[in-house]
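Below: protein 1.
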Amino acid sequence: MRKSLLAVLALVAFILSSCVGPTPLVPPSIDPNAPVQDGETNVDVDGVLLEWVATGEDLTYDLYIRRVTKSVGAWQLVASNLTEPRYVLTDLEPNSKYEWKVVSRDPRGRTVESPIFSFETAPNLYIVQAVEYNSGGPVEGVSVCFFDESELLIQKTTNAEGLVKFATDRETLKIVMKKYGRGVSIVEGLRPTGKEAKTVPIRLATNHPDPNDPINSDLALNVEILDLSNNPIDISQPIGADFKVKVTFTTQQLPRYIYSKLGSVPGAGLITSPRWLASNVYETTFTMGIAGFKGEVPLYVVAYDANDNRYEKIIYLTIQPNAYAEDNLYRPEKDLLMAITRRRGVEFYSVPGFENISPEVAPEGSNLLVLVRWKLWSADTGKDRPDAYNVYRSFDGENYTLIATVPYSTTFNYAYDFSSELSPGKRVWYAVSAVKDDFETELIDFGSVVPLDSFNVQLISPADKETNVSRRPIFKFKPTKQLTSPEGTVTYNFNVAIYPWVQSEIYPITAFDQEGRLVNFSTTSANIVQVPFAEHKWYMFWVSGGSVVPLYEYPDMLEAGQTYDWTVGYAYAIVEDDDSVAISVACDWIYSSLRYGVDPIIIMEQDVFNQFTVGSGL
């Protein structure tokens, strides 16, 4: 009887438990402490953390999002099978409304959907890219603080491309950038950048690597706008005449350079002239011409101190030039469009002249620039001389952006584009207009160019430290990379240089032809190039008047038992089509500051010299 009773009780318990059923699912909701609430406004576009709460065990989540424009878009599944009730959104559009929802799922496969939540992103987008130097590569891991005057809005860290994005309702910001081993870099007066990043150099520190060291603090840059009689100008009103810029730089270290320029960021004379420069002073005054400018124009002032801390200040001025009565203005004519890729980067920085640029090589860096050059105006054309030229760039051949205004000069009939958006294999278009007073001509098409990738040279034979080498060796080397271009066949060019300086000879040796010209060795492939010593005449040489010239003919074989160094003196790849040239330079160096001149910028030393010792035979 007792066993029967227990059996009945067990059956009743089973039936009752079956009637209770599983715990019901509750639609996810937003916790009051979540960073983004329903209906939130002024939300950032990058690193947006969505959080929700849900009831149940071992739940997983699918997150859906849609952008609301004039019509509601379709739901997009952005993440599925999430095990945590949170997700970080990136790369949202500014000034946009988004809706989102969450679907919870339990292990039984049951689902429940949340209500539809929404938020609106902030209207003003700031994209900042940290770079090693002008035309240099990106810098990862830089702390970027965004300030509205003294209020810290947010701190972010640059990614592998050196980028951070921030959206806000503030219309002008100050940014402070820091990374150990590099100088502090500050930009004040930055306006929303839109889709194109504001590139900011953050250079290697020269003395004090810790950016939080007190000696790197208290940087300030004061700028006064004066008329030519040194009276203050009300910059809320249009400026119709040349003016002065008085700059005072505050730093606890010695000052190094102060630059100023209208229209674009100033730097080294080679790539940003014309611009103003003062060295080793805390205070200076520049006279700024307004020819060629009209409307709202940014005035840039940039200062460096001895630790390579950098301070950039941007002031927007309204320029009101005279009226140009008739259209008899000269139209620009293209002289050259050239993309320049340099294996090693020069930190374009300070000095005003071409020959005086001191290369500060960043081992991991490189340069990529585009030279846009036009023909000089001549009175013989019967057309009025321009006050300036405007240079425009496009990445689609249709939508052009102004990148430089170059006042008329018989010296500076060119502009360099060193935007971080330039990339090997990415086609870019350019156009130029002429400006006089308040008149600007239509854009004149200068064509397009596709920059080449970088490459290096591998020395094969004679190998480094090789002995018993033939007195008439065969030099073998090869490009490290096969370069291609949609603009034509890429041709590599080299020469071979021998250095007998172990024997205290004073000149290097290379091959010349019967007309006294350097012998150039070329190929269109990345295969091994062979240069037999016996097939050429070799001369000791030097540089005279900017040209490489032969001095003394060398014997028809190397000296037995002696030690030499050899390398490829210059190496470059080039491709041309009907409207442009693209060049990629691997090296161009002879000795000290001397070079062959194939690099359009400055010297670039080789990575490797092979030393070998000649045997006693032939």
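Below: protein 2.
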Amino acid sequence: MQKLKILANDGLAESAQSSLKEAGFEVLDIKVAQEQLLFFLNREKVDVLIVRSATQVNKEILEGAESLRLVIRAGVGLDNIDRVAAKENDILVQNTPGASANAVAELVMAHLLTGYRMLHQSNRDMPLEGDQHFKALKKRFAKGRELSGRTMGIIGFGRIGQCLAQKAFGMGMRVIYFDRSSETKKMELEFADGQKISFEVEYRPLNELLAESDCVSLHTPKQADYLIGRKELDQMKQGAVLINAARGGLIDELALAEKLEAGNISFAALDVFEQEPQPSIALLMQPNMSLSPHIGGSTIESQNRIGEKIVAQIKAFAE
């Protein structure tokens, strides 16, 4: 087995680092600034580069990194890696599909429950007014809604979309989807005790899904233009909820803010933003939004699963 030098530029689970070191690999767990990355890769003669979404592995790096042979995306999306340049320079690109699907799906459900029960606002107001205006707050937040019986529309039905469908179904929701395929999906929900329930998820064209869904959740790769722009927002059901835990730039955030202020969209939740790491302050100040700083796939469990996959990939590459 070859003894490779590995740079985990955006971090790597401690358990994975330990496994790699035990196998005889050298692991550099440091953050190198984007503008210094190519110089560092060549100076340290790095064979394997592990990144998340923060590091851009562009054509300049892939053409200039003299010893680089493998790039691994700790996650799913490969938007930040120039795969054409990688292929031209005989550099293998891999990712870890499926490892973070449950984490993202759970975060979507957390945001959804937060909006339906107004927990985002209650959590702000209780520390400020709870000791003096408890009864008033109780009255203010006693008009939440239930998810059971609502329709969840999922745009993008890969691993994460399917995992979300299982969770929504388990909460008593009806689920429909939009994707490249158009057949009815037969799915299975497995419980902790081993029991299984089969259910079906029907396809809808995008305009029909938007008009029919109480909640719309996005799970697609990056697009050339807005997936949800003004036209699509106009097509959404009055008072619907919109969630994006996929990619920044899928939603026209200015148009979304206008729809929230007008009450056409009752609530929105964003884990990703058009302008990261400096989202629009006007968007962040919207009262009818639940926000998180791009943490969809970031749980202890998911990072351990990602680490396990990366260890297996590097060992296989080194053989």
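The radius of gyration is 22 Å.
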